[in-house]
Specification:
single chain; alpha/beta; 52% helix
Length: 228
């Protein structure tokens, strides 16, 4: 059973999401909160065993917004995975929520079946991004001038951070696919590898780049993917 904390300031949307997700036999809405502060207050009252697995998080909320709440949860309750669910696909908001520690970013018009599947995937440790979200992250990074797409391939490779340069071509392929939101199974299928081999590659990439999880890897890949 996947335990969920639902954080959403609009009551009708909160009740609708709760009703829809409650239809899934393996999903349990433990509690609902109308803003990040109420969510943090509720978490503070729970024992370690009672903590939810997933916080389904809105972004624009009064008192404490989703970015602040996501950051607080990542710092105080690292076992809880945050999945953003919002009406906004704003580039800056996406980047802020990912940097705060969210494992995924979906829009509220995501079909209920896809939302349930994404919750399950995030609970297993996978990153989940709605259609076009990764592309927006990449576009936002490009606007920031992190690197130029007009450089020659050899020059582009030299602009990569040393730790990324040290990755093997196969490890960079794996990192690229992580950035596209692919699961280990999907990476294995695309690269014609076993899932065990892919898992080893993922572990190696995270270790070499000093990354905490796949979400951080996805952000890094989105930032540098054009030079891989």
């Amino acid at each position: 059973m996947i335990k969920i904390l639902l954080v959403e300031d609009q009551q009708l949307i909160r009740e609708g999401l709760s009703a829809l997700l409650s239809l899934e036999a393996d999903l349990n809405i433990m509690s609902e909160a109308e803003n990040g502060q109420i969510a943090m207050d509720w978490l503070a009252q729970q024992s370690t065993e009672q903590l939810p697995d997933i916080a389904l998080m809105d972004m624009r909320m009064p008192v404490m917004d989703g970015v602040a709440a996501t950051s607080a949860i990542a710092q105080k309750y690292p076992t809880i995975k945050v999945l953003v669910l919002t009406t906004f696909d704003d580039d800056e908001l996406i980047t802020q929520s990912m940097n705060a520690g969210a494992q995924g970013y979906l829009l509220k018009d995501t079909p209920s079946e896809e939302l349930a599947s994404s919750i399950r995937a995030v609970a297993k440790g996978y990153s989940q991004f709605g259609p076009g979200i990764v592309q927006k992250m990449m576009a936002h990074t490009a606007k920031g001038g992190t690197h130029s797409s007009s450089q020659s391939p050899s020059t582009e490779l030299s602009t990569l951070p040393p730790k990324i340069q040290a990755l093997t071509p196969r490890e960079r392929e794996v990192l690229t696919l992580i950035g596209q939101g692919a699961s280990n199974k999907e990476i294995a299928q695309q690269l014609f590898l076993s899932e065990g081999t892919v898992k080893n590659y993922v572990t190696s990439v995270l270790s070499q780049l000093d990354l905490r999880d796949r979400t951080q890897a996805a952000l890094l890949a989105a930032q540098w993917i054009q030079t891989f």
